[in-house]
Each structure stands twice: as structure tokens, then as C-alpha cells.
Amino acid sequence: MEIVKRNGPPEDLIYFDDELPLEEKHVEDVIEIFNTPLTGAYNWDYTVAENRIKRLYELGKELNWNGSIDLDWSYNHPKDKPLVGGELFEPPHEQLDAWKNLSDEEKIEFDRHETAELLCQFLHGEQGALLVASQIASCAPTYNAKLYAASQTFDEARHVEVFNRYLQEKIGFHYPVNANLKALLDKILTDERWDLKFIGMQVIIEGLALAAFTNLKLDTNCVLLKQLLHYVIRDEARHVTFGINYLEEYIKTLSPEEVEDRAQFAYEACVISRDRIINTTAMQKFLKMSPEEARQFTLESGAMETFRNFLFSRVMPNLSKIGLLTDSIRPKYEELGLLEYENAPSDFEIDWAEITKPLESSEQIVKESNEQAKAVAEMLNQA
């Protein structure tokens, strides 16, 4: 084991060599230290409240899946076929001459890099969720919340495992963490207030991730990636529901000043997250665009606006449900064009029939996903 300390995350792609057997590979753990004034809490009343949190905890135990044996790692996507189909959100770069001028092989390579860049942000976000969940297990004040946070920590570890394995074995390289995602993770991990960790992770990051995972699951052509995302989505749906149900009661106990403080924090996290979903490194590499050109092109595309709205339609009703769309903060969301989603269905209400289903087979997932993708595409076309 070799531990190398850095002052920040890697800035370049990391490639993996599959030729060497594991025992001959040199493993280097590259770490970045962060400090947090975490305030922990014992709980000496071990009474188990029979409520939604307890039921979600029980479901987490019942529906555990093993990333090593429940996913079909024998599947290899055809090397001449794109990983992502683009049926829901047509990539805006496909209208560019620079993309049209690429050879078929270059277009496939671009697809691999763009998909890897997105999946790596999922991977980095899941590591952040792993760290935050472990903090919440220590500092959440109630017994049920500690138990659930501990179970979520294991879920997040499994998500890190499967995203990393897919990237290493099926794609072969890692992209560095998006600077905006890193800034948000730093903000959440280093704050001493446990409920802000809840808000930042369970509501903002997990809520956005849940929508992004669903989008990619519907749009990918890779059977293994579709199955992987489907299983992760099942876990994340419980996590977001846990956060909304727990915070809805907790926020009511705070003073108006404390609520405003949390509402401002959530707004700032949403602003950072709007840029988090802009990943342009692959575009710069293959389409010969400068960072600013790629960013502006992506921001101004109708497809990106549709995609961004799709993501935030999941977050805004949750913020409304827990009481963080205060009168003073609402105009700020109005300026971002996000307030229109506040009355969409929130994750407070739980579809127990859906989240208690046994794990589906890859065949069932593909069939269901294709049907859902067709329905979503029709809805977007009508809009």
C-alpha cells in the first residue's frame, strides 16, 4: 500500500491497464485531506419509533443487492455501437460540423469519453454521499436516523464499487471531478451542522442524481449499465424519501432565522449544481473547442435547458415540502426559472408497492426502460 497526499483532486484522465493480474498491479492511494468541525451526538434512548423511517430502514435490509453477483459483468457492449442512444435528449453537439466531420470510429470514441465523463461525476458524487452518510450516522440526533444513515453508508459504498468497476473494466479510464461538484461536496462535508449535510446531500445532490440516473438509464444502449443504474436508482429513491420525511418534521422545530439560513444554503447549492451538470472536457478534446466555447455552447443549447429542467423538477417540490422555499428566497429561484416546478409531486409520499418489488432481471429492466423512454420522448415532443 502506498498513500500519496495531494492538495486537490487529479486534473488529468486516469487510464487502467487490464493486462496485468491484480497481484502484480501497483496500487497507489491518492488522497486529499479535508477538516471538519463535526459535532457528534450519542443517543441513549434506544426506542424504535414505528414510522416511515423505520420502515425504510427495514426495506434497506431486505432489498440489499450484491454488485459482484447480481449484475451481469459478462456482458460486453459492442465496440462499434454507442453507449448512449440520444433518443430522449438529442446531444446538441451532433448539429455541429466538427462532430459531423468525425469518422465513425472517432464518434464512437467520443461517445465513450462523454459517457465516462458523466459516469465519473456519478462516481465522485457517490463517494461524497458515502462520506456524508457516515458523518450523519455520527451526528444525527435520533436513533432511527442513525440506523438509517448507517445502512445508507453501505448503499453508497456499493454504488462507488459498481460505478468504479464499470468505468475500469468496460471503459478503461476515469475523468477528474467536476470543479462545481467538488465545491459543493467540500461545502457539505466541512459544515458543522448535521441538518445542512442532510439538505445538501439528501435533497440537492441525491435528488439531482436520481433524475440524472433515470435519464441515463432510459437513454443508454448498454444492458449492463442499464441494469446497474436501475439498481442504484432503487436505493437512491429510498435515500431521498428518507431525507424529505425526516427534514419535513425537523425544519418545523427551527427558528425563522435558522430556516432562512437553511433556505439560503439550499439555494446556493442549487446554483452550484446548475453548473455541476455541465461537463465539457470530452467536447473540448474531440471537437477542438476552448473551455469557454464548450461551456457557452452547452449552456445555450435547448437540449441542455430541457435536461436541466428535467433534473430540477425533482428537487424543487422537495424543497417546497420541507419548508425551504421561503418568501425571501422564492424570487431567487424565479430568476433561475425553477420556481414553476414547486408544485410537482414530491418524494414525501412513498409508493411502497414500487420500492418493495424484488430485484428485476436485466430482461425485465430493458423492456420496462424501453417503454418508459418511449413515453417520456412523446411527452417531451408534445411539450
TrEMBL record:
GO MF annotation, one: oxidoreductase activity
Transmembrane feature ranges: none
InterPro entries for this protein: AurF/CmlI (IPR025859), Ferritin-like_SF (IPR009078), RNR-like (IPR012348)
Protein name: Uncharacterized protein
